[in-house]
Write a sequence for this structure.
């Protein structure tokens, strides 16, 4: 077989590992810190799989024992066959084909082809498919300067566009939990003012910047005078960047918790990061914060403007949610009591955010939009007072908690053991720690549900998995 054909075989053998790793890293927003936490929680096995390394080890041993170099072709064909099988069985993961993904994948393919051609006659060629995570990492590193340049240009363009509308009331919303629900309720209460509102899952620097460019690029005058922006962060400085770009005049902090603790490093860093919103508010601005939030005094001291501490009085279906923050802000912007009550009567919580439904005589708590230690505890306490005799917990496990992950999951297991008769935690690492506190064997997937039982789904649980419990 010619070198060109062998190189083509190496490329086809490398395709599935490259696609899988690209899909994973894209899901982590191409961030090194989030990928690091994922690997720490799940191990390296997910990056390359289990079959390929085992097959590779056996065949390498065979080469050394038999001294038969022709087996290299067999290995590459075996890897190619695995790729075809994964695609045929529809188990292959793919990245979303954004410009960045196409650029990185294309560069990785070129690097793979070059390496494959260089080592095509050597034993090393069989390791090329396994090394796809390293090759994609190299591709991203090569494009890092360009990536940063393009990102800064987008952020600056969004900042310039925002500056063209000095009279805008920009409301920034951040916190460890409750950002999305607060944003949606506030937008609902202010709907007569036709506010501009960031869409679902758009809360990062680039996401918000691109959204601002889309909304303001060709606009000379705005009929809408209110903009509501959800602000997320994984480390210090990101909310400060968002604020520099969007120039908020009103700031809302919903709650300080321990979500993404592994990325921030400590809860103090979480407080500092979320507090960047209050730091950025002008003297003429206004800050609003949940009275139940930890570090209340620390955050209030960051304000140069008046800060309203909001007690929870209005109870919606979600017991952890302080609806009064959105209500007070709406009233501050001119919505009267009657209008607030009318709007509250027609408000629905966002999908998969503490929504309760019945299906096949099973009551389902669907809190699969996201998960944090705080929301997990609230769900357990809610389940405690429900009337069903059998209560089953289905949870993904909470990601990016760093060194505190085992302690937090064990505490949640201890809290849950007196509430749930059965529990299943999808993440194997989280499951081990949870089981220590739960002190009962965790259930297999799926476990049998009797009629009129309660199924609590917490965290990013695929709908297909929930269906298995109901079938």
């Amino acid at each position: 077989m010619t070198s060109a054909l062998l190189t083509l075989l190496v490329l086809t053998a490398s395709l599935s590992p490259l696609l899988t790793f690209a899909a994973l890293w894209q899901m982590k927003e191409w961030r090194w810190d989030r990928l690091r936490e994922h690997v720490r929680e799940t191990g390296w096995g997910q990056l390359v799989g289990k079959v390929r390394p085992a097959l590779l080890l056996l065949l390498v041993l065979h080469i050394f024992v038999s001294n038969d170099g022709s087996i290299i072709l067999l290995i590459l064909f075996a890897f190619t066959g695995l790729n075809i099988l994964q695609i045929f069985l529809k188990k292959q993961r793919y990245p979303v084909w954004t410009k960045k993904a196409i650029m990185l994948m294309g560069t990785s393919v070129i690097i793979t082809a070059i390496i494959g051609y260089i080592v095509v006659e050597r034993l090393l060629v069989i390791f090329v498919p396994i090394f796809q995570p390293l090759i994609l990492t190299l591709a991203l590193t090569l494009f890092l300067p360009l990536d940063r340049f393009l990102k800064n240009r987008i952020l600056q363009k969004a900042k310039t566009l925002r500056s063209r509308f000095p009279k805008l009331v920009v409301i920034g919303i951040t916190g460890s939990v409750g950002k999305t629900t607060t944003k949606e309720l506030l937008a609902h209460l202010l709907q007569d003012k036709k506010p501009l509102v960031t869409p679902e899952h758009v809360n990062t620097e680039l996401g918000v910047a691109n959204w601002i460019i889309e909304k303001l690029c060709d606009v000379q005058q705005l009929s809408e005078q209110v903009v509501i922006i959800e602000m997320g962060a994984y480390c210090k400085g990101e909310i400060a960047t968002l604020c520099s770009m969007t120039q908020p005049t009103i700031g809302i902090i919903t709650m300080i918790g321990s979500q993404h603790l592994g990325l921030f490093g400590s809860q103090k860093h979480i407080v500092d990061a979320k507090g960047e919103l209050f730091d950025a508010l002008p003297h003429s601005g206004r800050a609003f914060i949940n009275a139940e939030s930890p570090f209340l005094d620390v955050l209030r001291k960051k304000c140069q403007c008046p800060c309203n501490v909001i007690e929870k009085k209005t109870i919606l279906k979600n017991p952890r949610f302080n609806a009064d923050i959105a209500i007070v802000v709406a009233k501050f912007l001119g919505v009267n009591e009657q209008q607030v009550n009318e709007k509250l009567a027609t408000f629905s919580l966002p999908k998969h955010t503490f929504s309760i439904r019945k299906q096949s005589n099973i009551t389902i708590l669907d809190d699969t939009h996201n998960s944090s230690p705080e929301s997990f505890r609230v769900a357990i306490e809610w389940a405690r007072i429900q009337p069903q005799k059998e209560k089953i917990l289905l949870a993904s496990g909470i990601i990016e908690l760093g060194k505190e992950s085992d302690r937090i999951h064990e505490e949640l297991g201890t809290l849950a053991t007196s509430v749930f008769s059965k529990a299943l935690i999808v993440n194997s690492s989280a499951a081990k720690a949870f089981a220590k506190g739960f002190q009962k064997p965790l259930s297999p997937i799926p476990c049998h549900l009797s009629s009129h039982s309660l199924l609590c789904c917490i965290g990013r649980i695929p709908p297909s998995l929930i269906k298995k419990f109901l079938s």
Notes: The longest helix spans residues 3-27. The first strand starts at residue 169 and ends at 174.
